[in-house]
Amino acid sequence: MSSNGKGYKSFVPTRGKRAGKDVGANKGFKRNPAFMKNETGTGDHGHHEQRAPLNINKQPRSLTQQGNGNEKRDDKESRGRGGLNVELHPLLRSMAKVPEIPKAENPLKRRSRPEFDPLSINIYVNQDDISAEDRKRAKRRQLHFNEPGKYIAKGAEMREKLAELERERLRLEAEKEKGLAADESLGEHLYKTERPPLVEWWDRGFLKDASYDYIADSSRIVYDNEDCPISHYIEHPPLTHSVDENFAPGERPMFLTKKEMKRIRRNTRQEKLREKQDRIRLGLDAPPPPKVKLSNLMNVLTNEAIKDPTAVEKQVRADMQKRYEEHMRENELRKLDPEAKREKIHQQHEKDMQKGLFTTVYRVESLENPQHLYKVDVNAKQLELVGMCLTSPKMCLIVVEGGAKSIKFYKKLLTSRIKWTENVPPKNSTVSGDGEVSDLSFNKCTVVWDGQLPSTNFKKWTVTRTESDEEAISVLARFGVESYWRSAVSLDVN
């Protein structure tokens, strides 16, 4: 091993006897007798002397002086080392030159090697895109420590963003479920929002200009304009009754048991009978004839029944028939004629509507069965409900308005009593089965919306046929309830 003048040592293989001889022969050096003894293998191979710690300056030795490789050595310093840790041969120590360090140079401040620039050798980076400033900035990049809580803050910020996205998604889903989202099938996403006017209508009469640009200038404002909606007159609107007054809770009835109701009815009848008996005793009323029946014939007419039982029985049956006819005649007198009966039902419906107006919107998938359409139509007329039954190929919409009792009865009819999945063959079909019955297993009635109204939107009950959504919306728009159709279309019936 020799020095090359730069502080590095060159290696010469000296391992083994042959390598040691070749080195000495090539360089022209003579062998030291002290080393020859170890190389020839003289002495005991089974026992080795205790060697002192290795000291190159005191007693330099080569690798050939350390014995065979099979011998185990406990001395850590005496073990053979490889690579840059290989010892210098004693014969080459005189040839090695010790590098001299200039006095003006401080080895502690000297850089061991130039900085490594990874961008200069990266084959995947275009070297033309890298400016000198970037290279310079990369060279003077230093070690920076993260502030405490930096990544915790970043994580909190990311979680906040994710939570905001989740809230936005839930809001859109809630709007879609409520039907507030724009329905693309109806073209609601194409609606254009109107911009606010330059001047509101309530300010137009006070401003000389068509904008609010000079509103701070008092000379551009008119206070005594006769056309303006505000004046020195005070309007006193007429007083109206509150809607809640019709729904004021009345006196709650007392609920009695069956035994209590029977006792009260018995006491009432006894009191009436006692009053009637008192009037008969005073001679105010004639005593009633005996009420003879076949069951009490012998107890009431004892002597007459014994003398002529046949005549007595005939007389008793005639009296029974007379009492029955009189009872039926009184019932007929109390019964109302058809006109009075209709008037009474109408008064009941009017009284029910005075308590409040209610409405219910139904969606029916199909009214192909004529019996279903007949029940929907006739019951609405009998209950004096106003509204509309709107049929279309897509679905059917039923809107009814009326009193609470009528709405409740009609709701029970449509949601419980009518079997919407049943169908009948067409009216003109033959008995042999020429008419095909369509499947209505998908048919059902769903309540879209129900609530209370300040006034009715319809004047009468009608059944209308439409062919498209636009036509149905235009029909309902005449009554200001076109939103019912959009709500029914967006309703999830599955």
How would you describe what is shown here?
With 494 residues, this protein is of the alpha+beta class. Among the domains are: 1-137, no CATH class; 258-334, no CATH class; 355-422 and 439-490, Alpha-Beta Plaits. The protein has helices spanning 17-27, 33-39, 132-139, 150-178, 258-281, 297-300, 302-307, 309-334, 338-354, 370-382, 404-417, 469-477, 483-490; strands at 2-3, 9-10, 357-364, 386-391, 396-402, 445-453, 461-465. The strands form two sheets. Strands 6-3-5-4-7 form a five-stranded mixed sheet, with helices on both faces. A two-stranded antiparallel ribbon has the order 1-2. A hairpin with a 4-residue loop joins strand 4 (386-391) and strand 5 (396-402). The longest helix has 29 residues, at 150-178. It is elongated, with a radius of gyration of 59 Å.
Give the key terms:
single chain; 494 residues; alpha+beta; Alpha-Beta Plaits; 5-stranded mixed sheet; two-stranded antiparallel sheet; disordered N terminus
What is the 3D shape? elongated
N-to-C terminal Cα separation, in Å?
92 Å
User: Approximately how much helix is present in the residues?
Assistant: 25-40%
Count of separate DSSP helical elements: 13
Tell me the β content: 5-15%
Alpha-carbon Rg, integer: 59 Å
Ranges with pLDDT <50 over ≥5 residues? 1-30, 33-50, 54-80
User: What spatial order of strands do you see in the largest sheet?
Assistant: 6-3-5-4-7
Characterize the biggest β-sheet. 5 strands, mixed
Order of helices and strands: EEHHHHHHHHHEHEEHEEHH
Question: What is the count of β-strands?
Answer: 7
Computed structural class: alpha+beta
* Mean pLDDT value: 78
Pfam families: PRP3, Prp3_C
InterPro entries: Pre-mRNA_splic_Prp3_dom (IPR013881), Prp3 (IPR027104), Prp3_C (IPR010541)
Domain Pre-mRNA-splicing factor: 123-336
Protein name: Piso0_001008 protein
